Amino acid sequence: MQSPPRSWNGKVALVTGASSGIGRAVCQELVKLGMTVIGAARRTERLTALQEELGEDNFEGVEVDLRSEPSILRLFETIRARHGGVDVLVNNAGLGHKATLMTGETDAWREMLDVNVLALCICSREAITDMRSRGDNGHIVHISSMSGHRVPGGSGVYSATKFAVRSLTEGLRKELRGATSKIRVSAVSPGFVETEFAEKYHQSKEAAEQTYSQFPVLQSEDIADAVRFVLEAPEHMQVHDMLIRPTEQVS
Predict the structure, then answer these.
(1) Reported CATH class of domain 12-244
(2) What predicted TM-score, i.e. pTM, was given to this entire model?
(3) Residue 212 among the catalytic residues
(4) Integer Cα distance of 18 and 24 in angstroms
């Protein structure tokens, strides 16, 4: 007999990078699942607007700087004090700089590594501490990238951070299995999604518009739907890494 979809009604979720794009759409989707959602980001005015949209009983915005471990630890302390910990973590926050290996600035490389890799590790560690005290049956979802499966030209460092996420997903899965934990870990790896990413990467609104006008690209809601599918998979099933491209994307 097929197992029913996993229910998260009444559980607590943390979504990083919640102020825009994929993170914002994921928060909206998780509220539909009946979860209490904590959205973490630096742009508090956007979190406030999202809280007004979703309702303060369903969503709470908390400021965090993912480049700082003390800031991340304060985030988890706040969640534990107000909600008792998290049952779901969506490591959505991430960024890319057009900083090549030959000429890129060290600070740009460091920021990508701090946010895309180290913050993901710290958040996962803290979330697992919560999950193991709350029934040992949570779920961690990394929002990765197709750049963790191939290396676009000029994006060597950004791509390296997403290859790291790919390795961390499998490494954590094996650690959890070794600990006989029921916590699941998954990754979702999108191709082109129309968000603020391209404008920040290229430092150009025109370049972003050109990137997203080549063909119909993915929308943030598409990735939020994928996250919901991953979370609702029956408990005997773990989606490991979901690769999602626009139909017309070549690479």
Answers:
(1) alpha beta
(2) 0.96
(3) no
(4) 5
